[in-house]
């Protein structure tokens, strides 16, 4: 009996491929020049897709796979996969939660410290010789004792809160529903922003959170406030963010994600009020290896017994 077909969307490591190649007949989306022609010949044989949080599964690709049964996503975010369409067709979808929680939390702390402690300015001051020529760099701000709001207190949000404890902060949070946690809950995001020194975005992307951090939220944070986004670029109204930074109505922004990646608006790159990273929240050798292993584990478990190790919530009942 031949191996089931697997459509690979995006990259994969040699280790991942070494585990998948004996178990699946692998097709590469990047090598398909004519999707319709390929689908007529191979589409019916493909039962699984391996993808990532950025590429997801384009609607035309999903439509070309009439016997698709499983989608294994590399990454915790899966808003680029139409889970409603998958559920309607009985397609199971997985992602890679938990294994990247710590690294994304580390990246949050990196952005926090880099922003409050003027890392960009002070590193340039040291390298340029300005310290010797002009004297000491200006004072910066301590992360200690701040009120830090977390937008989206899921698994990664909780890990962020745990790691922030070294700074003795006051943690507050906003989610759709109140949780059984020892932090103050705000049902209104604007009201929470008014109370915060720092707002950390770690909520899922998708239509329900699109531009949830808007002009009102940003201005509520205020001229001494800092926004950190390690979730999805769609969560923040980028035009409103640029306007708030330019006008001084928002103090700082530490961003790992952007609305139209890999494009970053020139205004954000030019601003001395920003710390920018190229979506590297989980980008360490160790964490990416764990994510890759779990992506493959989901596919192998599905092949073995039809279940997924870490299904997304929408598909957990399938």
UniProtKB/TrEMBL annotation:
PROSITE patterns named in the record: D_2_HYDROXYACID_DH_1
One GO cellular component term: cytosol
Residue intervals of the D-isomer specific 2-hydroxyacid dehydrogenase NAD-binding domain: 110-281
Top-level division of the source organism's lineage: Bacteria
CDD domains, per database record: HPPR (cd12156)
Residue ranges occupied by any D-isomer specific 2-hydroxyacid dehydrogenase catalytic domain in the UniProt entry: 43-312
Keyword annotations from UniProtKB, A to Z: NAD, NADP, Oxidoreductase
Pfam families in UniProt: 2-Hacid_dh, 2-Hacid_dh_C
InterPro entries per UniProt: D-isomer_2-hydroxyacid_DH (IPR050223), D-isomer_2_OHA_DH_cat_dom (IPR006139), D-isomer_DH_CS1 (IPR029752), D-isomer_DH_NAD-bd (IPR006140), NAD(P)-bd_dom_sf (IPR036291)
A GO MF term: glyoxylate reductase (NADPH) activity
Family the UniProt entry places it in: Belongs to the D-isomer specific 2-hydroxyacid dehydrogenase family.
Protein known as: Lactate dehydrogenase-like 2-hydroxyacid dehydrogenase
Species assigned in the record: Litoreibacter halocynthiae
């Amino acid at each position: 009996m031949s191996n089931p077909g697997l459509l690979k969307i995006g990259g994969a490591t040699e280790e991942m491929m070494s585990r998948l190649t004996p178990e699946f007949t692998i097709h590469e989306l990047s090598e398909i020049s004519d999707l319709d022609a390929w689908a007529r010949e191979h589409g019916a044989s493909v039962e699984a897709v391996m993808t990532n949080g950025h590429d997801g599964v384009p609607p035309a690709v999903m439509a070309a796979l009439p016997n698709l049964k499983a989608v294994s996503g590399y990454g915790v975010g899966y808003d680029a996969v139409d889970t409603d369409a998958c559920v309607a067709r009985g397609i199971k979808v997985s992602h890679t939660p938990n294994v990247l929680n710590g690294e994304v939390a580390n990246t949050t702390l990196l952005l926090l410290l880099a922003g409050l402690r003027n890392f960009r300015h002070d590193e340039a001051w040291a390298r340029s010789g300005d310290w010797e020529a002009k004297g000491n760099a200006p004072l910066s701000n301590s992360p200690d004792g701040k009120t830090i709001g977390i937008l989206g207190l899921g698994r990664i949000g909780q890990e962020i809160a745990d790691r922030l404890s070294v700074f003795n902060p006051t943690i507050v949070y906003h989610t759709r529903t109140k949780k059984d946690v020892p932090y103050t809950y705000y049902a209104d995001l604007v009201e929470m922003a008014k109370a915060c020194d720092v707002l950390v975005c770690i909520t899922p992307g998708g239509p329900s959170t699109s531009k949830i951090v808007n002009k009102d939220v940003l201005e509520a944070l205020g001229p001494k406030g800092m926004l950190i986004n390690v979730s999805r670029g769609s969560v923040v109204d980028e035009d409103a963010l640029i306007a708030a930074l330019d006008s001084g109505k928002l103090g700082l922004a530490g961003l790992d994600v952007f609305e139209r990646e890999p494009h970053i608006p020139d205004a954000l790159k030019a601003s001395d009020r920003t710390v920018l990273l190229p979506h590297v929240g989980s980008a360490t050798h160790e964490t990416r290896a764990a994510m890759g292993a779990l992506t493959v584990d989901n596919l192998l478990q599905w092949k073995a017994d039809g279940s997924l190790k870490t299904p997304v919530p929408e598909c957990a009942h399938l």
